[in-house]
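Support request from a user on the community tier.

User writes: "When I paste my structure tokens into the form, the page sometimes reloads and wipes my input. The last time it worked, I copied everything first. Here is what I submitted, just in case something in the input itself triggers the reload:"
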């Protein structure tokens, strides 16, 4: 079983920055593929960024060049640095994990990010 706890959300003005962190416990963290999802009111949950154990990263188009996902396998943490934030980035952000195959199976409780215009 993998437990995930997010932190770092909050309220920020457009153009500002926030850094989200996710602490993981359970099986070997380095074997997990980690992702950050977000869900805005009335919208479907979307995968924002992901990072695999050899640190290859992917991003949804709307955040490329603004967000950076990183992981620290020694500390079992994954972070999402969010720069140049826009009001449309407002959402609940979730940390998630999965093994090499299969869907994202483990989820954090979510952290609210609100970007004011």
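"...and here is what came back when it finally went through:"
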């Amino acid at each position: 079983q993998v437990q995930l706890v997010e932190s770092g959300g909050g309220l920020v003005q457009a153009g500002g920055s926030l850094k989200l962190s996710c602490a993981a416990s359970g099986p070997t963290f380095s074997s997990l593929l980690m992702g950050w999802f977000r869900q805005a009111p009335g919208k479907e949950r979307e995968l924002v960024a992901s990072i695999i154990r050899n640190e290859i990263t992917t991003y949804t188009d709307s955040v490329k060049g603004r967000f950076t996902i990183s992981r620290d396998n020694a500390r079992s943490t994954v972070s999402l640095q969010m720069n140049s934030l826009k009001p449309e980035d407002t959402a609940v952000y979730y940390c998630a994990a999965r093994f090499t195959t299969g869907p994202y199976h483990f989820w954090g409780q979510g952290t609210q990010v609100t970007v004011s215009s």
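Agent notes: The reload is a front-end session timeout and is unrelated to the input. The two ends are 40 Å apart (CA to CA). The chain has a mean pLDDT of 94. Escalated to web team.
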